[in-house]
Design goal:
Layout: H1 46-56, E1 62-68, E2 101-106, E3 118-120, E4 140-145, E5 148-152, H2 162-170, H3 175-186, E6 187-189, H4 194-199, H5 201-227, E7 233-236, E8 244-247, E9 269-271, E10 278-285, E11 291-295, H6 301-308, E12 326-333, H7 349-361, E13 382-390, H8 405-412, E14 417-423, H9 429-443, E15 451-457, H10 467-487, E16 508-511, H11 520-539, H12 544-547
Parallel strand pairs: 1-3, 2-4, 11-13, 11-14, 14-15, 15-16
Antiparallel strand pairs: 1-10, 2-8, 5-7, 5-10, 6-9, 12-13
Helix pairs in contact: 9-10
The chain binds guanosine-5'-triphosphate and magnesium ion.
Keywords: GTP-binding, Nucleotide-binding
Organism: Botryobasidium botryosum (strain FD-172 SS1)
GO cellular component, one term: mitochondrion
Length: about 550
């Protein structure tokens, strides 16, 4: 018989791999029993909404950004002046090109919160006398986390196009004023020569040519838009060396030498730089953790994350404690232990803070070392490492964006494998599982096939004092296992990117107590093996070594 008790605790898990058949009864302490998971899905949760509005969501995973590339610099009207040469040739330089805006995925950036809602490329400098052209402006680079998806917005949420902006500036003007305004927006004149210029044949020809070119460009742009009818879409799941250009900077204007001809020896006009491209993009961040935890609010996901990693995820006995996905790293040592090596029960955050305050006040512990961090180990002691994401609780109808719906589902989509976390002490954990799976499927067909494990948490809350109670608990586990085997084994495997039919096995069910750190070794071992499998599948054998943090024995 094997108890999974930590020393000094009278609580025992009656369920472990080795002990499933031989249950150990133990005194059950029900002081911290959790409320049953009944949640009204129809009304948005005021508390979570309120928390969000208080700016507590530092982690930003969705953003709409208005982008405008830099305007080109204006061409210059100038004439070369030299002693004894009163009538020098035209010498105005061209304007520099406006800076483009590019997007690059970089490692180390973890949230979209550093990105502004409006981004402007640098304007190109104007040309100058003595044939000095303006320099082309450098690109503005938007750095996003790896795992960001960028989509162009074409519906009513998009910003103005250049044409619309121009129309707006011309609104309410008379026809004549419109003509003048348009000219002003396109031409630069030699001082006091505007009126003279406009009357000359050379200017009129140049203006006509410009209008023709503009029209041709518009037609070309419309044709290009029809050809690649799809709006811009970037899936940045790897760090990018080069930025992807999303808005091209405007061309610089021509200086007056451009208009020099046999008939016009002294052109007194130049063109202005063109506007930079405008685009409205939506950024969506999909968190990249190897394992995603999926469960109802209050199921104990954060507690589990804390038990497995050194993460300080918030834990509290009410729903929607977690608003920001937390990622922790599970590090497994050669001796099979993992995480911090901490053995104390995972307390609710409030209790924990209170206890720490008390300990500090009584002088029992100094500030340093009071967080229970592990004694650092030699790196070669580590055999496997993977990341695990605790997510906001999933609700029925999350796929319709109820609760924290989509933001939750987005963040788990890219995990290599998923693990369901259910409250095993609840009345019908199998129903919870069915709902969780249905939500994953409703959001993205095939997604539930990434689930490999069912973590039946809070197993310590089941009464297991008498023989009957033990038998009951065993029956409950058997029922859950039977449900998982019969109902949760995927039946079709057509969606790409997910496991193939041969690889589909029934999900494993592991009863645990995250709070009292019972039976977590098995969870870690299974998760480690799923991660390894998925990594191998994704990157092929040759890259395995590069990916594994340590070239050591991995779980089999
Ligand atoms: N007895 C017992 N209580 C647990 C266990 N795991 C979690 N709890 C308690 O359940 C409550 C909720 O735990 P959390 O980890 O905050 O739950 P969560 O799934 O992250 O919840 P949300 O963030 O709201 O989605 C806390 O009071 C925990 O102490 C367990 O194994 N046994
Ligand atoms: Mg939580």
């Amino acid at each position: 018989m094997k108890t999974l008790l930590s020393a000094g605790c009278s609580r025992a898990s009656y369920l472990s791999t080795a002990s499933k058949a031989s249950l150990v009864s133990c005194r059950h302490i029900s002081s911290s029993s959790s409320p049953p998971p009944t949640f009204d899905v129809s009304v948005p949760k005021p508390k979570s909404e309120w928390k969000r509005q208080q700016g507590r969501q530092r982690f930003l995973d969705y953003l709409i950004v208005n982008i405008r590339a830099g305007k080109g610099g204006d061409g210059c009207v100038a004439f070369h002046r030299e002693k004894f040469k009163p009538q020098g040739p035209p010498s105005g330089g061209n304007g520099g090109r406006g800076g483009s805006v590019t997007i690059r995925a970089v490692e180390g950036v973890t949230s979209l919160s550093g990105i502004g809602k409006r981004i402007r490329g640098a304007n190109g400098p104007n040309g100058q006398g003595t044939w000095q052209h303006g320099k082309n402006s450098p690109d503005t680079v938007i750095e996003v986390p790896v795992g960001t998806v960028v989509r162009e917005i074409t519906d009513s949420r998009r910003g103005k196009t250049n044409e619309e902006a121009e129309q707006e500036r011309l609104e309410g003007l008379s026809e004549e004023e419109k003509v003048n305004k348009r000219r002003e927006m396109r031409w630069v004149h030699y001082p006091q020569y505007q009126d003279v210029n406009v009357g000359t044949e050379a200017f009129q020809k140049a203006e006509e040519a410009m209008l023709r070119a503009e029209r041709a460009a518009e037609i070309e742009a419309a044709a290009a838009a029809r050809r690649n009818a799809l709006p811009l879409f970037l899936d940045l799941d790897e760090p990018s060396e080069e930025g992807h250009v999303v808005a091209t900077g405007g061309q610089g204007g021509f200086g007056n030498p451009f208009f020099l001809s046999s008939t016009n020896r002294s052109p007194k006009f130049a063109t202005r730089g063109r506007e930079g491209e405008r685009i409205t993009l939506e950024f969506e961040l999909k968190l990249l953790a190897d394992i995603g935890l999926v469960g109802f609010p209050n199921a104990g996901k954060s507690t589990l994350l804390r038990a497995l990693t050194n993460s300080r995820a918030e834990v509290a006995p009410y729903a929607f404690t977690t608003l920001n996905p937390q990622v922790g790293t599970v590090r497994v040592w050669r001796d099979g232990r993992f995480g911090s090596g901490e053995t104390r029960a995972v307390e609710d955050s409030v209790e924990e803070r209170r206890r720490r305050e008390e300990e500090l006040e009584s002088g029992e512990v100094s500030r340093q070392g009071s967080r229970g961090f592990p004694v650092p180990r030699a790196p070669h002691d580590e055999v496997v490492r993977f990341t695990i994401a605790d997510n906001p609780g999933l609700l029925a109808r999350a796929s319709e964006n109820v609760g924290l719906g989509h933001s939750f589902l987005r963040s788990i989509e890219r995990s290599l494998a998923l693990a369901y976390v259910v409250d095993f002490s609840g009345a019908a954990p199998w129903d919870d599982l069915a709902t969780l799976r249905a939500e994953l499927e409703a959001y993205k067909p095939g997604l539930s096939r990434k689930a490999r494990l069912v973590i039946a948490n809070k197993a310590d809350l089941l009464d297991a004092e008498t023989e009957d109670q033990v038998r009951e608990a065993r029956a409950k586990l058997a029922r859950l296992e039977a449900f998982v085997k019969d109902e949760m084994t995927p039946s079709d495997c057509d969606a790409e990117g997910y496991r193939t039919w041969e690889e589909v096995k029934a999900l494993e069910v592991v009863p645990v107590s995250a709070k009292y750190r019972q039976n977590l070794e098995k969870v870690v071992r299974l998760l480690g093996s799923y991660v390894r499998e998925a990594r191998e599948e994704q990157h092929g054998r040759s890259e395995r070594e590069a990916l594994a943090p340590q070239p050591a024995v991995l779980y089999s």
